[in-house]
Amino acid sequence: MFPTPVEKRSRAAQITYQSLVPLALILWLLPLIAVALFSIRPGVDFANGNYWGVPSSFELFTNYGRVFFESDMPRYLWNSVLITVPTVIGAVALSCMTGFALGIYRFRGNLLIFFMFIAGNFVPFQILMVPVRDLTVDVGLYNTKMGLVLFHIAFQTGFCTLFMRNFIRALPYELIEAARVEGVKEWRIFWYIVLPLMKPAIAALSVLVFTFIWNDYFWAVVLTQGPDAQPVTAGITSFNSQFVAQYHLMSAGSIVAALPPVLMFFLMQRHFIAGLTLGAVK
Amino acid sequence: MTLPTDPPTQTWLQRHRMIITPLMFLLPGVAFFAVYVISPILQSFYISTFEWTGLGSLSEQGEFIGMQNYRELMSDRNFEVSLWNNVKWLVLYLLAIPGGLFIALFLNQTVAGIRVYKSLFFFPFVISQVVVGLVFSWFYLPNVGLLNVVLGWFGSEVNILGNPDLATYGIIAAGLWPQTAYCMILYLTGLNAVDPEQIEAARLDGAKGVRMLWHVILPQLRPATFIAFVVTIIGALRSFDLISVMTNGGPFGSTRVLSFYMFEKALSEYGFRMGYGSAIAVILFLIMLIFISYFLWTMWRDERAARL
Fold it and tell me: Which of residues 267-296 of B touch A (CB under 8 A)?
């Protein structure tokens, strides 16, 4: 292991290390801790200039209660759910299929199509913006969740295909050959042999895509407006203009908006990291 | 083993199933991708040769002006500022890679509770950039922001986002926060897979510290470094959310980058110049293309090596 494990070092080094880690963590998360502290203060503290002193009262429930009951926040959150979940399902389903086709079969153009997906995945959003917005307006999906979902599915399919194809490549190919010798139909090989083996990849991708889409801001601004369809990343700006300079509420709102992917991460940590670090180890 | 011989009753579909099946499986994915990604790229090139407000159809309401948009870009001072800021983003964002490596080395231990620390260090990456932007703009607030409270103890003060010379650096620092976390997790996974025997052998030869890191560890971390490089470059050129939330391009347009300037020209209150916006997007795309080609070339090489 590198660096040398601290257990093998002197007692003093161990104690230094163990006190250094929490200290470093606090420093690292300082901006976030500051916001969390803001969100439990009463509004009067800010009016009195008491930003960092002891809170005059503890208002966690009042502040977060107001976020949920006196603003459009719940609507924005629900929109985010209705945009994110169908996108995850759609992109994962499509990429299971493309990944299977590109990972199992040898045909001319296989690598070309694969590299098209990878390249598309790296493209700057702005080169797609005008035509995609135009297309969405033309088919009457501007300012609808469906418009966002369709685009997200298409774009995420690029990344997901890269992921799925490499995952399928690593599966034992003999399994498929054996099935073919037995005369199993191709689509049944996909459904009964490959798909069950892809469960870990499906889990990892679902968590990743959930986070990517939940956190999307650019397309939310380009393709939607107002609380009917906007997800929470875009909604937070109108939330903040509703509560201008009321830092306790803006902080609470931001934390609420950021929370779902954070929960997802802590619940599904293993899958999440497996997905992100795909390819970081050979 | 006997190979199954094709019975003569096979239909055309059965005989060609090894090509029909992958095509059927690819069809929906490729169709979606073609409509929403491939074709818009080409259309953007085309639109960039027009003066068009985005209202009505391009062929009726748009006016073909050839390379005029690009010529205008050459003398556009704002474009120059944006391009220059993109360079700053690209260069400084790369600090996330050594930063992530440093934290990964710091946390690559097996003491009690280290797993929790690792996840807590990672979690800025999971938060949306919009919230990261808000968090940092409050952190930077003059007088009351935590940064200035701390600086105040030393008798100094700085209004980072209000100063045209500093604002971009302030935003990049905010962007480095989640990006460093990402690189850290890549390196932590990479360090896990480093061959312990090689480390022991190197130790016996007397290697340690920086020399060990440079000659033994880093070569084994190459795959992690490559991915960290890819995601950091892409992240730097995609920067939009943070700028939009933290300064909205200001003060005096000093924090614009190409992606933001394009959006401003095409969709915001500054007007609806779709053609001009597309021209900016094309330039950004071409810059990205240099990196994409390099990434693809590397991946293609690995792919060929894997086949042999």
Answer: 267, 274, 277-278, 280-282, 284-285, 288, 291-292, 295-296
